[in-house]
Amino acid sequence: MRSPGRRTFVLSPRTPAMKRKHGRNPVSVFLFFVLILVMLMYGEDFNSIAEHSLRNSRAKSQELARQELAIAKPRHEGLILDSTEVAKEENEEEERKEEKPVLQREASDAPARDEPPTDEEGRQLPEREGAKASVAVDVPRVGQLPSAGSQGHEQRAVTSDQHKPEAKPQRVVLNVPETCDLFEGRWVYDDVSYPLYKEHECQFLTEQVTCMRNGRRDDNYQKWRWQPRDCSLPRFDARVLLERLRGKRLMFVGDSLNRNQWESMVCLVQSAIPWGKKTLTKNGSLNVFRAEDYNATVEFYWAPFLVESNADDPRIHSVPNRVITNSIAKHGKHWKGVDYLIFNTYIWWMNTPKMTVLRRGSTKYSRIERAAAYRRVLRIWARWVRRNVNPKKTMVFFISLSPNHMRSEDWDNPEGIKCALETMPVTDTSRPLEVGTDWRLFAVEESVIRSMRLPVSFIKITALSEFRKDAHTSVHTLRQGKLLTAEQQADPATFADCIHWCLPGLPDTWNEFLYARIASRPWPSQETHTHRSHTNLSFSHIVL
């Protein structure tokens, strides 16, 4: 009887002889064992070949899907971009998203979802690619500011990047020297980089200034950029300004034109703040917009004459006989400790050639010629600034006269009716306009500011704004708190408002002047910054 162990050496050298001798191992058995051996030896190679084929198939499918997606996406009007550039940017964006954990990606994308774009009827629109397209042009990202020679219009902040939280605060200093005259220049039509925000994207705008929502059909007034003659005006960057405002207060003080500019500033900065992290509070004469993440406020204080008057009620101020005093203390106590103060006063001085002024220490009044009364008030204001403002902590600005456009004959349009239906700025800039501006008051402002020992930045908006007959709210606004009816809109001679300005619009340029002056100032020393941070932390600890 054979030992069972001898059958295990099937592939030994003796196997063929055994087959022939005994006839027990047919050829089929031999081939079966050979096949098993081959599969054991080369099985991994077969698997890798199959996986390689599958990966190639999936890659081709994904590439085809991306190509179809790039073709399906809408293009921003007026910009042309090579499709290979778009595909490259989309691929890089997809790779960045894949590398992020899901929670991290949702957190960083949250500001971008702050207010999805909608059409005029409120339907959500697909994301525009205007920001991506601008990358293909000479557009530095936030923080990569151009040199002095290339700042201004060329300074671009990619819209999508404005919504991305930065790892570290960027202490940017703009290269705009004090010797740069920002106010001599020309208006340039720019429908690529302007407006700086969309009317429907800023929920803080009041009905007084939302001209498009109120029925205006043309929007060209939003797309004019101011180009200084001998230097450049940096484009507004909300994150750069908010970093300057971190832990600080910025306050506009004055009349409804300064409130107009305050609304513009709120809309300019709010786009960089996530939803739920910004609030607006109105309390009598003081309106406060708060950016929580920056512990910063942008405020407006109603004081149409700067000094006390019988028109100081922000709701009931349309009094027929306006009286001003020689006192500023009641208002001034609200301005103390503010880090950036922006003053103005003008439009309320234009009702009468003489002003009614309460005599000091008396109940009797005097009738004083407008320019003389204006000088007296500005000297009172200058004295308050000298006594109450620390120049190491606070920057002070004064906004010059905001012009009116009441007579279309002033710009050679005898068929026009005030500023109604004007859609273009004055194009003939070879001669100064005569639109009724009281330039004597401008001279008073300049004289008083020049005489002050504390530095005050004079923002000269008057001459450049006189060309903007197209930018007023006209008949697309309120009258005594109510929107104009169709009948009232059809009567611009009676109802057109040629004093205030649509937003987005001209006041955004005024704020770009403020931005240039604030952000070009050197940052305080590291020691000062550290001390201020410790002080804030200690105060917060006490409050908690």
UniProtKB/TrEMBL annotation:
Positions of region (Disordered): 80-170
Trichome birefringence-like C-terminal domain segment(s): 233-516
One Pfam family hit: PMR5N
Protein name (record): Trichome birefringence-like N-terminal domain-containing protein
GO CC annotation, single: Golgi membrane
Species whose genome carries this gene: Musa troglodytarum
Main location: Golgi
PANTHER family xref list: PROTEIN TRICHOME BIREFRINGENCE-LIKE 9-RELATED (PTHR32285), XYLAN O-ACETYLTRANSFERASE 1 (PTHR32285:SF10)
Transcription regulation in keyword set: no
Protein topology in the membrane: Single-pass type II membrane protein
Keyword Membrane assigned: yes
Localization of this protein: Golgi apparatus membrane
Segments forming domain Trichome birefringence-like N-terminal: 178-232
Keywords of this entry: Golgi apparatus, Membrane, Signal-anchor, Transmembrane, Transmembrane helix
Molecular function GO terms recorded: xylan O-acetyltransferase activity
Biased composition (Basic and acidic residues): 80-89, 97-131, 153-169
Family (UniProt): Belongs to the PC-esterase family. TBL subfamily.
